[in-house]
Request: fold
Amino acid sequence: QLQVVESGGGLVQPGGSLRLSCTASGFTLPYYAMSWFRQAPEKEREGVSCISHSGGTTHYADSVQGRFTISRDDAKNTVYLQMNSLKPDDTGVYYCAAGPLTTIETLCIMAPNHEFEAWGQGIQVTVSS
Reply:
């Protein structure tokens, strides 16, 4: 059974940093693109970042460009989201999603309505003083 589990969330002051991890089980990461999403209270889930299976292609939402960095370590079956210069607007539940399984080097998806292979349960990130 494909599963992904997020970790690394918590409370941080504005301007601070957090690193989220997404660890896969039941499958190995190579050939899976991976994505991060977030959902703030009373708002729709939105794409934050994604990374192709090769790691050679990444995409970011405009709101996090230049502050967040997505990366992957296939040997550890883990994808990371390094979040710097955090703002209160970054507060929300962050989700990791696996998929698609693909050989296309440049493909990753930030659309939350895509049928991903697996979703994590989410982890809370709160940016507040």
